[in-house]
Amino acid sequence: MVRIYTRNKYATTTDLEDGSLLLRATLEDTFFAGVVEMEVKVPDLEIASIRGEIRRAVNEECQKAIPLLQDLVGLRIGSGTNKTVNDLIGSSTGCPKLADLVLECVDQVILRFTLPWLKGSQSQSEQGQIENLREMVRQNPRLVGSCIAFSKGSRLLEGLELGK
Amino acid sequence: MLSFARNKIVGVEHPEENVFLAHGVLEDYIYALELDVEVKVPNFEITGIQGKYRRYTTPECPKAIVKLQNAVGLRILEGEFGRKVRRVVGKEGCTHFANLLIECCDGIIQAAIYGEWQALKEKGIAPAKEEYLKGKLQDIAGLKDSCMVYSRWGK
User: Fold this and answer.
1) Quick one: closest CA in A to B109, which residue?
2) Using CB atoms, which residue from A3, A11, A145 is nearest to B12?
3) Domain encompassing residue B98
4) CA-to-CA distance for B51 and B142, rounded, in angstroms?
5) Is residue B149 in some structural domain?
6) In chain B, how many domains are there?
7) pLDDT tens digits for A51-85?
8) A94 touching chain B per CB within 8 A
9) For residue A111, is pLDDT > 70?
10) Measured between alpha carbons, how far is A101 from A111 in angstroms, rounded to an integer?
11) Fewer CB atoms < 10 Å away: N or C end of chain A?
12) Residue B56 maps to a domain
């Protein structure tokens, strides 16, 4: 069976010397190619700069969405970011593909700071790894309810006391 | 040096007039997972889904596989599709499967919109782009206000 469509989306994070993060998300599919790159300050997670490019699109009008990205400068990544990005960049007045690339960068920030927790427990026993995950939840209580592993009733949360 | 990277690949096949199949792969420094999704037209409804992990983070993660079935019956062009997937596949299961499922379904939508035009172009019998797209926007409900281009052409 021949493919009628293919998509490759990749995103990368680079730690800059001043402690900021450089995020880049690229989409290349049968009908569209674009990239979003942004710099995020740490620890306040504020978008310091952003740029985007639509390299290929069926519709030339898509280019008109690029300047909208500047509305995100100064935005702090946190709860409500998805809605803000979709409202400002996606929806009927923008380009959902560009909004998705921005949100891919936002996901990278979260995953970038999750990785050290997991690396730290790699060599531990299963119980040690579970304790490490519980400590991660203690320090990031917003994880509770975010997925099946951190849902109420999960053995990972049994007896876990969360701070205020 | 990179401190994190994620790669998502989606391929779409169109084996029958009313069936689209998507295969998606997500690989990053933490997770590795795969999905196969079947969507039937004209309702653009998910009629089948299977997934597997190659790499995950907690002993509870594999329980998310069964939650993929929550996606069966969802219509991918409905305005609330993404929100529903993030809840019934993501929060109730795994957010990374939800992410990949949305990616697969977006691929199917792109293939459904432009695939036919591409085929007609290859045969040299494609109508003008505007004419073709206006027809598609009439045929595929839910697209009209999804972006700045479609909202103008859909009127």
Assistant:
1) A5
2) A3
3) 6-153
4) 27
5) yes
6) 1
7) 999 999 988 889 999 999 999 999 999 989 999 99
8) yes
9) yes
10) 15
11) C
12) yes
- A126-135: b or e for each residue (b if 16 or more CB lie within 10 Å)? eeebbeebbe
In a domain, B1, yes or no: no
Residue A29 burial by Cβ neighbours in a 10 Å radius (0-12, 13-18, 19+): buried
A29–B147: do the CB atoms touch at under 8 Å? no
∠ Cα A100 A103 A105 (to 5°): 115
Amino acid at B81: F
A70 touches chain B (CB under 8 A): no
pTM for the model: 0.94
Arithmetic mean of pLDDT, A124-151: 90
**Cis geometry, peptide bond prior to residue A67 (ω within 30 degrees of 0):** no
In angstroms, the Cα distances linking A121 to A127, A140, B27 are: 10, 17, 20
Q: B6 vs A111: CB contact, 8 Å cut-off?
A: yes
Q: Look at A30 and B4 and tell me if their CB atoms are within 8 Å.
A: no
pLDDT at A127: 86
**Residue B99 CA from chain centroid, whole number:** 10
ipTM score of complex: 0.93
Q: Is residue B92 part of a domain?
A: yes
